[in-house]
Write a structure and sequence with these properties.
UDP N-Acetylglucosamine Acyltransferase, domain 1, about 15% helix, about 160 residues, 20 strands, about 30% strand, 1 helix, nine-stranded mixed beta sheet
Length: about 160
Amino acid sequence: MKPVLVSKPQIYEPSYIHPSAQIGEGTRIGAFCDIGKNVVIGKNCNIQAHVTISNETVIGDNVFVGPATSFFNDKYPVYGPLKAPVVCDNVIIGGHASIGPGVKVGEWAVVCMHSNVTADVPEETVVKGNPARLYMTRKQYDEKARMYSAHQKYWANYEDEEG
Ligand SMILES: CC(C)(COP(=O)(O)OP(=O)(O)OC[C@H]1O[C@@H](n2cnc3c(N)ncnc32)[C@H](O)[C@@H]1OP(=O)(O)O)[C@@H](O)C(=O)NCCC(=O)NCCS
């Protein structure tokens, strides 16, 4: 599908972006997203396909949001009041996660795929599960990810040499 450039962010069609939403430079919005009224998304974010972001949600800079994740703002639907989530800078959210009404995801936190986040996530922590609970620290996550990545590269090179 052809990307459509709307000011500097890159937005893939079809996606609905409410005209009042603000999207920072270098941010990429995948296809089939629904971005509500007064949503603010910072710079250099990667919002993957099928993400639903409810009205008034605030997302910082350098945030990754995996596919089919949803942000909610209505704790007791039809009664209100609405309270949107806030996601701070440098957060990673896996695919199919749910970020509940009024929840704050602290800076450098990681939300594992399919997590159901019902309470604030402290900065630099990793949460998983339903309801999402502490899994490890961001430092441990980064170490694990680096080791995994190095291991994959080692075997890729090894296979090249062998082949
Ligand atoms: C954070 C993440 C990397 C964790 O990986 P990990 O720490 O290497 O986890 P492991 O595979 O070693 O599994 C450890 C345990 O946690 C469990 N687990 C792993 N991911 C889980 C998740 N998202 N939710 C609940 N449990 C999970 C495993 O089942 C395993 O449980 P066990 O010890 O009872 O067998 C991974 O869960 C994740 O969310 N990745 C993001 C994927 C994604 O959405 N990508 C988006 C772009 S495609």
